[in-house]
Design brief:
about 375 residues; alpha+beta; CV3147-like fold; 2 domains; 9-stranded mixed β-sheet; 7-stranded antiparallel β-sheet; 16 strands; globular
């Protein structure tokens, strides 16, 4: 039996998300994005506007769901580099909700982020407000991952009955695939055909099926991390402390090899240490998210544990599509939710799932 995902700490759990919370949510979601999920800036602006116009969106826990509730995940799908220039249309989420309700045969009451990372961790608050839905204080990853199979419900054995996708010009596709591997193949092909970016809704959950199958408390956790970052004069230290993370290196980006192919951003980033880290050289492998940190041929950290590159002065996360030569950065690493360290979790999102012939060594902290 797969252990249930561990809930995020309940301290400071929010009852709602208001416009004043969005800056912290965006800063925290960018950290949890581990380089992926899309840059948060445009999602932050859209979400702040939605919450100013509608008021706060109620934030509910899994334990607060009732038999009358139905939860659907909603997210952007595609290459983050494309998302910089291709904005979603005003009515995409309304189209998704209508199709999801028609396919499910019941009204949707609650929206959940597929991943708390990046723009996909921020936009659902605004979407829920626009749609008049509650927002679940949880997500499907506890971070960001690039593929549909890499979702907590898949680890827990909860099936995905259907998925709905829409693109910016109005095309809508409803899929009922035999498993999530087939969903990933079809969804990626549709995304590429749509210019590299779509919105999607899938994984209808109830109070019964959500319990033990989602990673709880992550919206509140992202706000908490963001507040720590924004309030501190030493933001990198503050974020590392809030997360229980380690700073692997502080230095300058000296090389970025990045390409967009097959609906993903792929490549690597090389960082030369400065100051106390002078003489050190680290390479980070990327597929939308930061996957592996290497130094002197040794693996310092790898998926499913979390690796985030932040601005060395401001502490703000830098998504993979925004990394550039000369940026002064710090690299943070911290342990993943225990769910991802199970045999099934590692099968879906460990190094081998991304094509790396590397044994997984759980990251336990400490500057290397």
């Amino acid at each position: 039996m797969v252990p249930a995902p561990s809930a995020a700490p309940t301290r400071d759990r929010l009852a709602s998300v208001a416009s004043d919370d969005v800056a912290a949510l965006a800063a925290g979601a960018a950290i949890f994005g581990t380089g992926g999920g899309g840059a948060v800036y445009t999602a932050q602006l859209a979400t702040e506007r939605a919450l100013r116009e509608t008021g706060p969106v109620p934030l509910v826990s899994v334990d607060e769901l009732t038999a009358a509730d139905a939860v659907i995940m909603m997210s952007g799908i595609g290459a983050p580099t494309v998302g910089i220039e291709m904005l979603s249309s005003a009515n995409q989420v309304e189209v998704l909700l209508r199709e999801a309700e028609a396919t499910a045969g019941r009204p949707i009451t609650t929206l959940m982020a597929a991943e708390i990372g990046g723009s996909n961790g921020v936009a659902p608050a605004g979407w829920a407000a626009r749609l008049g839905l509650n927002l679940l204080d949880g997500d499907g990853m506890g971070r960001a991952f690039p593929e549909a199979t890499m979702i907590a419900m898949n680890v827990a054995g909860v099936p995905c009955d259907f998925a709905v996708m829409s693109d910016v010009v109005g095309n809508v596709v409803v899929m009922k695939t035999v498993d999530l591997s087939w969903l990933e193949r079809h969804a990626r092909a549709i995304t590429v055909a749509s210019g590299g970016l779509c919105l999607g809704a899938h994984y209808l959950l109830t109070a019964e099926t959500a319990r033990g199958a989602v990673i709880e408390g992550t919206v509140s956790a992202a706000v908490r991390v963001g507040r720590a970052l924004l309030a501190s004069s030493e933001p990198v230290t503050a974020v590392a402390h809030e997360l229980g993370a380690s700073v692997l290196v502080t230095g300058k980006i000296v090389d970025v090899a990045r390409r967009t192919e097959g609906g993903f951003v792929r490549g690597s980033v090389t960082i030369a240490g400065t100051g106390a880290d002078r003489g050190r050289l680290q390479r980070i492998e990327v597929q939308n998210e930061n996957l592996v940190v290497l130094e002197d041929g040794q693996v310092l950290a790898s998926v499913p544990d979390l690796i985030t590159i932040v601005d060395a002065e401001t502490g703000h996360a830098i998504s993979t599509e925004m990394l550039g030569f000369g940026q002064r950065v710090s690299v943070l690493a911290w342990a993943s939710d225990p769910l991802w360290r199970t045999p099934r979790g590692l099968e879906l999102a460990g190094p081998a799932a991304f094509g790396y012939d590397l044994p997984y060594a759980p990251f336990e902290g400490g500057r290397r």
